Amino acid sequence: MPQSSPEFLNFGESAIFFYNCFAFSSPARFDRYLKAANGKHIEAMVLYRWNLRLCEALVPCLHSAELTLRNAIHRAMIEKYLPQTKPHFRGGSHPDDWWFDSTFNGTSVLGYGDSLKLVDAEKRIISDGKPVTTSNMVAELPFGFWVELLNKEYEQSIIVPALQTTMKTLRKTRQDQGWLRDNFGRLRDLRNRASHHRPIFHRTDLTELNQVAWSVSRELQGFFVSPLSPICRFKSVFELDKEAEIASLREQIRTGFYEPHRKATAADQEHPAK
Fold first, then answer.
1. 140 near 156, Cβ under 8 Å?
2. Distance between CA atoms of 197 and 201, rounded to whole angstroms?
3. What's the rounded Cα separation, in Å, for the pair 27 and 1?
4. Helix extents (H) in the chain
5. Nearest to residue 33, comparing CAs of 242, 210, 255?
6. Which of 30, 97, 138, 181 could form a disulfide with 150 if both were Cys (CB 3.0 to 4.6 A apart)?
C-alpha cells in the first residue's frame, strides 16, 4: 500500500520502528492495521498499540469469568456426583475428581473428546513436576474445556444440576443453556484473541462483553470481582482519545527514531565503512 504521509520515505523505515518498538511480526500481520488506517503507517502503529492496550485491559474481566465458570461447574458436579466417585488421584486423598468415574444414564459423564483433554492436562501437570491433584487439574484445564461442558449433550448431566445449585443465583433470563453457551462461548473466543494479541480494535461488542463478564461473575461468585474489578482499565482505554495518541506517537517517532535514523544514515553516507 503506498505511503501517504511524509514521516517516512517508505514502508521499510516505518516497519523498522514498528518491529523494534511494538512487535516482532511480519508485514502481513501489520497489514490489517495498515488497511484500517487507510495506508497511514503512523496511524496504523497507533491502532496496533491501542489494540495491545485493549487486550491487556480485558484480562481482568475475562479472567474473572473463566474462574467463575469453572468453579461453578466443578462445585456443582462434586455435589451431584461425589457419592459415585472413587479416590482416583495418587494416594487416594482427593475423592472429588468427578470427571473420571462418574456416570449418567449408564455412561461416562464426559464425552470421549473432553476426556482426552483431562489426560492432556494430567500430562502437563506431571511434565511441570507438580502433583496431580484435583486443584491442579481444575487450574490446568483451559477455559474452552469448561465452555464445552455447556453444550447441548451435557444439558441433563451437567447444565441442569449446575443451574439447580451453584448457578441458581443467576438472574432468571440467564438460567438457560442457550444463554450460557452463547455468552461464555463469546467470552472464550474473545479471551483467545486477546491472549494472542490478535486484532480486536474493530469489534463493536467489547463493551457489552466486558459488562457481561463482570455481571455474570457477580451473580455466580462475587468473590473474584472484588480483587479484580479495581484493576480493570477497560473503560479508560476504550474511551482513549486516539487523535491525541496519534499526535503523541508522531512526536515519539520524530525525536526517538526518525531524526536519529536520519543522522545515522547521513553519517554512514559521509563516512562509509571500509
1. no
2. 10
3. 11
4. 11-21, 27-36, 41-57, 59-81, 98-101, 112-127, 134-140, 143-148, 160-164, 177-195, 206-221, 225-228, 234-238, 242-253, 259-270
5. 242
6. 181
**What's the grid cell of residue 254?**
520524530
Sign of the alpha-carbon torsion through 29, 34, 40, 44? negative
Chunked into runs of 10 residues, the chain (274 residues) has average pLDDT values of 45 56 61 85 81 93 96 92 62 67 87 92 94 90 96 95 95 94 97 93 95 96 87 90 79 72 73 65
- pLDDT of 62 reads 96
Which pLDDT score, from 0 to 100, does residue 263 have? 78
Candidates 190, 188, 182, 183; CA nearest to 54 is 190
CA dist 85 and 48 (Å) reads: 50
Distance CA 52, CA 264 (A): 30
Tell me the C-alpha distance between 169 and 149, whole Å: 19
Distance CA 149, CA 176 (A): 14
pTM: 0.81
C-alpha cell at 86: 472413587
22 grid coordinates: 511494538
* In the chain, domain spans: 11-57+241-270, 59-237
Its sign, for the CA torsion 119, 123, 128, 131, is positive
How many CA atoms within 13 Å lie on the side-chain side of 123?
Answer: 6
Residue 18 grid coordinates: 514498528
CA 235, 229, 192, 158: dihedral to nearest 10 degrees?
A: -130
